[in-house]
């Protein structure tokens, strides 16, 4: 049985992901304070698009969720948000200084086609800034999440997780994928354990999970074992 309260709670969040950590990442990589042409792939309900526009950037966004795009356009009039997919970007060549995606890369079936499209829309010397979960740590957590939200058994949950998270990569796979598509990729040390992260752990693992964070804090893991990879990819 679906947990309708939990589903509604997730929908009503400002952003679908660790929003404050994503902003911290942008600051750590020296994201310009104003004046960039930015594309966010997987913009959801538009919280980051609105933040970027308010800061003086020209920001566009796409998301496959038509309901989220409708919410974005209604809530933030004037924002350029469209229904679209990460492997078929509805923009002209060399349109953007920076492309962003958070919790998106792992959902796009053809990673090479996606990166080819990102290359196409980036200007010379452009940068792709992204976050994607670690293949090694994501599947066990998503199994718990899928079962809690939708009440499916283990086998059905696994099928859904694998289908939805169809392009998970580990550390070395991600480096290779980007190198083969003409990007120089560097990983960025970004702490993820904040109030949002603790609340997520508490929701799906209970108080014991929160207590374990004091012992097994993912921010202290070596980069290849981090739960989330934050990366900066520069066109060669």
Q: Which descriptors would you attach to this protein?
A:
7-stranded mixed β-sheet, 236 residues, Rossmann fold, alpha/beta, 20% strand
A few lines on this structure:
With 236 residues, this protein is an alpha/beta fold. 44% of the residues lie in helices and 20% in strands. A seven-stranded mixed β-sheet has the order 3-2-1-4-5-7-6, sandwiched between helices.
Descriptive report:
This protein is α/β, with parallel strands linked by helices and 236 residues long. It has one domain: Rossmann fold, CATH 3.40.50. The chain contains 9 helices and 7 strands, in the order ααβαβαββαβαααβαβ. It is globular.
Give the topology.
Layout: H1 4-11, H2 19-28, E1 37-41, H3 47-54, E2 58-63, H4 66-75, E3 80-83, E4 96-102, H5 111-121, E5 122-133, H6 135-150, H7 154-164, H8 171-180, E6 183-188, H9 195-213, E7 228-235
Parallel strand pairs: 1-2, 1-4, 2-3, 4-5
Antiparallel strand pairs: 5-7, 6-7
Helix pairs in contact: 6-7
